[in-house]
Amino acid sequence: MPTQPNSLDRELAKFVKHAYASAPAVKRIFDDAGVKPRDIRRVADLERVPVTSKDRLVELQKAAPPFGGFRSEKAKRLKHIFLSPGPLYEPHGAEKSLVRTAARIFRIAGFTRGDIALNTLSYHLVPAGLLLDAGLQAVGATVIPSGVGNTELQIKMMLDLKVTGYAGTPSFLMTIIKKAEEMRLDFKKQFALRHTLFTAEPYPPSLRAQFEGVYGLKTTNVYATAELGFLAYDDETKRALQIAEGIVVEIVDPATGKRVGAREPGEVVVTTFNETYPLIRLGTGDMAVCTDETRERIMLVGRVGDAVKVRGMFVHPNQIKFALAQFPAIARVQGIVTRPDNVRDHLTLKVELAQDVPDRAKLSQEFSEAVRGLIRVSVDQIEFAPAGTIAADAKPIVDERKWE
Q1: Separation CA 287–CA 329 (nearest Å)
Q2: What one-character DSSP code corresponds to residue 69?
Q3: What is the pTM of this model?
Q4: Could you tell me if 90 and 226 are in contact, meaning their C-beta atoms sit under 8 angstroms apart?
């Protein structure tokens, strides 16, 4: 006898009907695949719907600007429009599902009413800063919208305001701590920080050991994306990620869109219940494995394509190629990402010249600024390489980081 639909199944079935009726792109995807909303009654039925990649989203937005037909025609007025790498425009309205999930995970991370929380993710163009802000407010915390940078000022605010919570990347918090120690401050004794929520970059065991063992912090690592919000967080073992409630996360074969077995690598494909921007089976480009048969816990293992996350921002090869097109003196370029101190990502651009350039320092500065303007991540080093060093078919971005 077939099992009865659970609450997630029922919510999914209701959401699919709404998305099909209100978002032209969703209707087109279903119709092209010969799928009707009534066919999706359980999470397992989603395999009938094609996966939509982020690259495909970009194509659809170009064909039907600005949102590619994914903005719900029944949604109320938009509150924000964000821009993520791709580029991708993302409409946000009055929907509550993203904030509800974020608040739930902040509570799991130990945040509560009365906390003074430093939010160091960007509020500029991307939705990360505002999503964390809303989640923190939902649990009753007071938010300091500091963003990244200004390390000494961040230290002053943490001391003056007795900051108890931190939200952002682990590498930036370590930068703050190391700077405080350079200033002869005792971080463990003089600062009120108790708990942190880390996201936007990997959280290696070596950093966890320092934050939790040396500095006595409660830390929670969260997997999130710009389009989809919070997706998963540290499980009790801190070796895997627990999939958040109210979200459908599938691990699928990138070639077929069919679910893979437990402990088999596949692409992370997500459906969230965002009524303003209904994305059904969005392929994140991340690779993961389900750690057990329950499929409730995952471990991230890499990327499907060539995009690489640097200091919390995805860097796409086509962004670097666009910058390259503005500099005829440069023949080829390759990005190399390392983490020499195991704290901060280091981005080097290896450059081959098409012609001799008398002022390489000026070219380095101008090219670095052009790249930074596109990827919103600063370039640490320009390395001029002899002709023939970068092969014509070389990967545009090479990730040489070791997560130890």
Answers
A1: 37
A2: T
A3: 0.84
A4: yes
